[in-house]
Amino acid sequence: LLIEALEYAEENKVSNGDLEDFTAQLISKKRALELMRQNRQVGTCSFDNGPIIQQKRIASLASETQNWAIFIKSFLNVMNDNVSRNANSNIASNARKTYIEELAKLDLDIDKILLGSNVRIEDTIRKHYFSDGSKIAKAYANLNSDKQKYFENTIFEIIKNKEIDAFNKLHFYNTLKNYQYFVKDSIKKIRLEKDIENLIPFLPKEIKSRIENPNKQLYDLLYREKQTLDNFDIKSSIIANIYSYSFDGDCWQAELIDKKSDGKIIYDLTMAIGEE
Predict the structure, then answer these.
(1) For the chain, which ranges sit under pLDDT 70?
(2) Which terminus, N or C, of the chain has the lesser number of Cβ atoms within 10 Å?
(3) Sequence spans of domains, the chain
(4) pTM of the predicted model, to two decimals?
């Protein structure tokens, strides 16, 4: 019966956890691995760990069968929280561990895997895994000092290299900013802040101008309200996705300080993108 169930599952591309476990224990771990890979898990909500557990099972069985390509991909899926869910939130994703310490124990070129997957390329015909920059940053923040030093120096070299394109320079700059956030050592945080400031002159001028004047885009957008806007200082401005009963979509969110109030009166501005 088990063999018949296995053959049916393989032919019809279906599976379940029990069949995968029995196949691995009694018939073939390699065939069980293929069952797991075709058994795509979709989480019901942001906090559903089912898809992550499935990726861990795949990584575990891939290591037992010495299928290192699948092992590394599944491990990166776990580290990046790169799974399917019907709903997702940053709160749930940020709370999950990267498990990078476990990968670091293996005899693998971990820097090549992490930094390589953080590079952005246009030619997606080639097989390239795209990691989340914030997850890469969080992973390195949990590695030893030698790994962290290599990570920092590599990003310094990338940003200073004239041959690197503007998009990758900005991406690695943001990765370094995220890394500074995740680093636990307060003294190191201060040192990194200075290092990041020293990298700004090496960025393309269009990126550098936005970093030096982060609210420029909002100023440009509200040029018709310039006379009114001149009464305020823009403390911060971001684009955020808002879900509510009355609106669903991207919005500008900004904090405006009344210049006449000595910083005591602050207004919150929320403006839907695309509306006049």
Answers:
(1) 90, 124-125, 243-245, 274-276
(2) C
(3) 107-211, 216-272
(4) 0.76
